[in-house]
UniProtKB/TrEMBL annotation:
Gene3D superfamilies: Peptidase C15, pyroglutamyl peptidase I-like (3.40.630.20). It comes from the Eukaryota. This is Predicted protein. One of its GO terms (molecular function) is cysteine-type peptidase activity. Keywords: Hydrolase, Protease, Thiol protease. Belongs to the peptidase C15 family. It comes from Naegleria gruberi. Pfam families: Peptidase_C15 (PF01470). GO terms for biological process: proteolysis.
Amino acid sequence: MKGVDEYFGNQDGNSDLTRIYIHLGVSGNTIMYEIEERGKNEKSFRVPDEQGEAPQKEPINNNLCIDNYLNCKLNVDQLVEEVNEHLENCKTHIPLSDLVLDSANDKIKYSLIVKSTKDAISEQEDIRKLEDYTSNLEKCVSLITKNGSFCKKSNNAGLFICNYCYYSSLHHTQPKHNCYSLFIHVPPHDLINIDNQIEFVKALVHCIVKQLS
């Protein structure tokens, strides 16, 4: 959290230049790129951060309620559509169907086995999280196999460092007419390698510039 606070604390808020803050975070729960639509004013860390801090159910901005959301000022639905189309047409990124489906299907099978095992999950909250995880994987598989998609919209950036960074960034950019923030969750590098992820980022930047032109 300290690094995020220091970074945005040092940003010049008076520049006339258009600024776009693009944040990337790795998610082991996804098999495709997820463009986050919003951040939540809550920090509930499952593990301590680099400074050993592990807040639980605390607001990021103490002046707003913990259930406050800040939305990206870019048109996320349009971005998802145009990035998918751009990558499909340019052929610079290997289709996700060639990269992730075996892993996804294995994860879905495993989650169903865990859910069906007696007493394997003791808390209702854990069952809900597992169901959400499985549902998201199944949605990703459907989008990849039926539409050839590379990315989708997400409205849940989590409650750990990724969400803390995104909400802080959205708070910084929200009042500025020429300042934008976007967070993307990417799959692990052993699932989609760096070269392909670079092609995704290049397509994303191209589509953002096009949207703002």
